[in-house]
Structures are given as structure tokens and as C-alpha cells.
Amino acid sequence: MYIVEELYQLFYIIYTQFKLIFPFWITGLAIGSFISVFFAEKIAKIVEQINPKKFYLLGVLSAAILGAASPLCMYGTVPLIAVMGRKGTPQYFLVSFMVSSILINPNLFIYSFVLGVPIALLRLFFSILAGVCAGILVHYCYKGKVFFDFESFDGRKSLAKSHSLKGLLQDIHKAIQITAPYFFIGILLASLFEVFIPKMWIINLFGTNRELGVLLAVSLGVPIYVCGGGTIPLMRGWLNTGMSPGAVIAFALSGASTKLTNLSAVKIILGIKHFIAYIVFHMLFAILTGWLIDWIYRIF
């Protein structure tokens, strides 16, 4: 009888999670696909036309914002960066665009509203800030030095897509095929987590010592974060059971930057030394961001 009750509770939570999250997921996919089909080439042209050499801070900020607005995956971003790099675009500009593009995109931003408006806006802000910080570091630390390695990269993936309703529907269909399994797995894991993991465990693990909780969240982001959308239900469950907002954002930042597909794409244009620097930067940025957010929440 006890097992039947738990199964009923599990299915009820799965249904509740699906009912709450599905509209955000499908809306995010639709908006992301719309931008990808009708605006990806325009974003790429804007990026290529901006000349940030005169006012580098403005260039860094512009690149970070454009990176956040870009719907391209890393395997679409890398060819664009390679082409711009060969045309003489400053390295700090390329780094800012790349870092923000890795951490956030329009689809993921819309989907993050499931976690609440403050969390979604904080995720966007710190994703852009990460791009700005990375660009500034490269500007000062690699002035006159080579940061990217484009020698091992040949060609450019085409951004051209059918700018039509058919092209939009095809893009949405492809996005659903890619993300749907992670979406449902995420809901299932979050529901199992809510039913079978005692709430006090999470409170003791992440809520008692928030500084340690952020460190644990960053560590979890590396192995668990496989798909941005798939982790949203997990993050929502953790928030509801005591994980701090800072730990949630830290998990999102560390996970997105060290996701296997992103790492393999970044490795194409970075040598091993700079690849390690990339990982260290993102881990430190995620930790400091988590601590800062929790400090702000304690004050206000």
C-alpha cells in the first residue's frame, strides 16, 4: 500500500511538473528557432561588421550581448569565430562573444523563467558579465599574443537556412528531437528527487553552509549538466527543497561551460594551455557568482 501511495505521488508530481514547465519549454524552442531561422545570418553579419578596436570596452560588451542573443550552438559559433579571427577581429571580442554564447541563448533564457523571474534575469546578467570579464582578461593578458588556434580548423558551417514557415517548422522539429529526451528525463529525475530524497538532506547539504553549497553545486554541474533544458526541472526541484539561488546559478554556469559538447567544440580553436585557462576561468567565475548572489539575497 505504501508503494502504491508513493507511485501515485510520483506520477502526480510528474504531471504537475510537466504542466508547469512544458509551456516555457515549447515557447523557448519556438522563439529560439524563429531567431535561428530568420535572424542568425543577420546576427553573424552584425558581429563581423562591428569594429571594436577603438573602444574595446564597448566592443567587449557588444560582443557579450550578441553572444547571449545568438541562437547558434557551439558547432555553429566556432566556424563564425574562426572566420572573424582570420579577418583580424580582436581576440578579446571573439572571446566575449564565445563565452556568453556558451552560457546562454534565447531558448534557455525563456526556459529559465520556470525558476522564477529573478533567477532567469540573474542567469542572463551573469552570462553576459562572464563574457565581458573574459574579454577584458584576454585584452590585458594576451595583448600581442595569440590566444586562438585556427590552424587546425578549416571551413565554415553555413548559417543559411530556409527563411520560410517550412524552415521554421523544420528547425522546431529538430530542436524538439534533440531536447525532448532530456526534457522528460529531467522531469522524471526531478520528480524522483522530490519523492524519495528527504528535504532535510538538501537543506543540510546546500542550505546550512551556503558557501560550501555553492562549491558543491559547481562540482555537480560538471558531470550532471548534459543539456541546458534538461537540467531546468532539476534546478527547480533543488530550489524548492532548499538550494540557494547562488548555488543554482553557479550550477548553471559551471555546467553550461563544461558540457561535453561545448568543451569538444571549444577545444578545436584553443590549445591545451588556453583550454585549461578556459575551464579554470569558468569554475572560478561560477563560484564567485554564486557567493555574490547569496550575499545579495542575504542583504535584501
UniProtKB/TrEMBL annotation:
<comment type="similarity">
    <text>Belongs to the UPF0718 family.</text>
</comment>
<dbReference type="InterPro" id="IPR052923">
    <property type="entry name" value="UPF0718"/>
</dbReference>
<feature type="transmembrane region" description="Helical">
    <location>
        <begin position="55"/>
        <end position="80"/>
    </location>
</feature>
<feature type="transmembrane region" description="Helical">
    <location>
        <begin position="214"/>
        <end position="235"/>
    </location>
</feature>
<dbReference type="Pfam" id="PF03773">
    <property type="entry name" value="ArsP_1"/>
</dbReference>
<feature type="transmembrane region" description="Helical">
    <location>
        <begin position="120"/>
        <end position="142"/>
    </location>
</feature>
<feature type="transmembrane region" description="Helical">
    <location>
        <begin position="247"/>
        <end position="269"/>
    </location>
</feature>
<protein>
    <submittedName>
        <fullName>Permease</fullName>
    </submittedName>
</protein>
<feature type="transmembrane region" description="Helical">
    <location>
        <begin position="275"/>
        <end position="297"/>
    </location>
</feature>
<keyword id="KW-0812">Transmembrane</keyword>
<feature type="transmembrane region" description="Helical">
    <location>
        <begin position="20"/>
        <end position="40"/>
    </location>
</feature>
<keyword id="KW-0472">Membrane</keyword>
<keyword id="KW-1003">Cell membrane</keyword>
<feature type="transmembrane region" description="Helical">
    <location>
        <begin position="182"/>
        <end position="202"/>
    </location>
</feature>
<dbReference type="GO" id="GO:0005886">
    <property type="term" value="C:plasma membrane"/>
</dbReference>
<keyword id="KW-1133">Transmembrane helix</keyword>
<feature type="transmembrane region" description="Helical">
    <location>
        <begin position="92"/>
        <end position="114"/>
    </location>
</feature>
<dbReference type="InterPro" id="IPR005524">
    <property type="entry name" value="DUF318"/>
</dbReference>
